[in-house]
Amino acid sequence: MVYQPGNNNPFAIPSKHGEMPTFVVRASKPQLPPVDVILETAEVVSLPMRTRFRGIAVREAMIFRGLKGWGEFSPFLEYDDVESANWLAAGIEAAWQGPPPAVRDTVPVNATVPAVPASEVAEILARFPGATTAKVKVAEAGQTLHDDVERVAAVRELIPRVRIDANGAWDVPTALEAISAIGDVEYVEQPCASIKELAAVRRVVDVPIAADESIRRAEDPLLVARAEAADIAVLKVAPLGGMRKVLALNTALKMDVVISSALDTAVGMAASVATAAALPMLDHACGLGTGALLERDVAPSFVPRRGAVSLRLVTPDDDLPLAAPDRVAWWEARLRRCHAILMAR
Ligand SMILES: O=C(O)CCC(=O)c1ccccc1C(=O)O
Ligand SMILES: [Mg+2]
């Protein structure tokens, strides 16, 4: 924490020229609420999806209330505790610090198209009214390049600006082949898994390359920029440890950014939208319309209207779709382990 200047410090002594001294006090780490305080208000929810996404048919999440509102803790089930601890830091920040100051109150969003057959594209896009950009999942396991080409073509007929996300599934030659087969796109998100491969693809193709996993799952989120491996940074608030962490990264990266959800519930989405709303510059649609992919949410979802979502605080509904007792116990144990990791950081 930084206190300055010393104007309201009763112990400050003005210099002989009359200025008050500036001094800086740094806490060793941000204040963490005790884990039992978090657990007092915590609920574990189980949210069915309208369409399977990233292999997920039911989204589980823990939400809890702090002094400034609600926070979400929802790392994907397969993530380890060290990675998941970032998600907890983000939830605690939302609940005990609240959002940073906004510079806009709506955020343009892309339609998010899971790896569905081309025949289902229109029905998915109808959930994102007014969207002028669509993000299409490609390179799904068990599917072919032909499936991707057909799906993207079906999207393009309805929404001209398309970005694709391969989630790191291609090697370099496959990425080059796929990018040329799929044709004109706004950008290609995470075509390959490693930073080296991203850089190799980027050197050869004209389309911009976006990095997602190479930032949010990396030891050092700045490596992508140093390696000149991407044009655009896709930043997710929970995996990167919170709203202020993402705003700091945005400054450090000196790249165009897109804020995207991690399949957040409305509670996590409020923090993601608040982050996008606080960016000094925002030139691209964000991936914050995924509430439209949930059958049920913890509060009214951030569903896009006229291609944008609106900034707002979220209070969960009274009748939450609660998870079964064994799942609640699993999430409580995970919360305790991740909290211990944050205490030790
Ligand atoms: O960016 C979007 O349109 C939606 C968010 C999204 O795609 C996503 C959601 C959960 C986990 C991973 C991803 C991803 O971008 O890879
Ligand atoms: Mg992605």
UniProtKB/TrEMBL annotation:
It catalyses: (1R,6R)-6-hydroxy-2-succinyl-cyclohexa-2,4-diene-1-carboxylate = 2-succinylbenzoate + H2O. The gene is menC. Its EC number is 4.2.1.113. Belongs to the mandelate racemase/muconate lactonizing enzyme family. MenC type 1 subfamily. It comes from Gordonia alkaliphila. It is an enzyme of class 4 (lyase). Its cofactor is a divalent metal cation. Mg(2+) binds at residues 165, 189, 212. It comes from the Bacteria. Gene3D superfamilies: Enolase-like C-terminal domain. Converts 2-succinyl-6-hydroxy-2,4-cyclohexadiene-1-carboxylate (SHCHC) to 2-succinylbenzoate (OSB). The keyword Magnesium applies. Keywords: Lyase, Magnesium, Menaquinone biosynthesis, Metal-binding. Residues 118-208 form the Mandelate racemase/muconate lactonizing enzyme C-terminal domain. This is o-succinylbenzoate synthase. Signal peptide: none annotated.
